[in-house]
Amino acid sequence: KDSKTRPEEVVKKYLEELKTPPVDEDCIICMEKLGAPSGYGDVNESKTIQPGSVGRLAKCAHTFHLLCVLAMYTSGNKDGSLQCPSCKAIYGEKTGTQPNGKMDVHKLSESLPGHENCGSIQITYNINRGIQGPEHPSPGLPYTARGFPRYCYLPDSEKGRKVLELLKVAWRRRLIFTVGTSSTTGENNTVVWNEIHHKTEMASNVSGHGYPDPNYLDNVLAELAAQGVTEDCLSP
Ligand code: NAD
Ligand code: ZN
Ligand code: ZN
Predict the structure, then answer these.
(1) Alpha-carbon span 15 to 73, nearest angstrom
(2) Which end of the chain has fewer CB atoms within 10 angstroms, the N or the C?
(3) Which phi and psi (to 5°) does residue 163 adopt?
(4) What's this model's pTM, rounded to 2 decimal places?
(5) Is residue 133 pLDDT above 60, yes or no?
(6) What ipTM was estimated for this complex?
(7) What is the DSSP secondary structure assignment for residue 156, as one 8-state letter?
(8) Which atom of ligand 1 is nearest to the CA of 193?
(9) Atom from ligand 1 closest to the CA of residue 195
């Protein structure tokens, strides 16, 4: 499985080492010139990557010191994926740190403002408090889980159903919630929404997290794509 792959192998899988690096360009991870050694050379002792080695990401072609990418990777959740720090392009399958829980789906006959006559989909997320794992901000300490079950709504339209399928992928990849500090309550070590917005208000939009919102489905599709969750992830 990818998550067992050694960090240096992940770096070498997605970056091609350059024989003649663009020496005058900056590495945006360490801010040194690519002609100078990696600023993370002392932090990372690597047997197989030299401090001067520079690599280029395959799809987006952004270039960095290989040791800088290694430092970035090992400071994350080490899931076998890399995200370009310049353009956010994702290599491999990005996963998050969402704690264990349950995602349920129900159809409702009631329609949402702005999506009349199609009924709606109610998603129920349930997560209980627990103990933080090594992927969380304070491993070994408890985390709280406030306001669960959380109920969210989508129109039962073709586009709404597509968003639902992509949210199921995001849930499996642990991308919907994370453990951190709630910007609403200020509480830390608690389960919070990650970067994929949900509509928790059904028949009004008092909170800004409700309907109508004509841009919501497009916005959430863009947020899913930014996490690497696109239509390509759905089996035909
Ligand atoms: P947060 O406040 O750190 O915000 C993270 C993201 O979630 C932000 O993008 C924010 O815009 C969005 N968000 C904030 N409030 C939201 C809402 N009501 N519906 C949908 N998205 C929302 O993250 P958080 O602490 O997970 O968000 C607050 C949410 O948690 C709210 O849904 C609130 O009802 C719920 N909550 C309930 C209790 C409770 O005791 N009932 C306690 C804490 C939080
Ligand atoms: Zn660097
Ligand atoms: Zn890039």
Answers:
(1) 13
(2) C
(3) -60, -40
(4) 0.89
(5) yes
(6) 0.90
(7) S
(8) 26
(9) 9
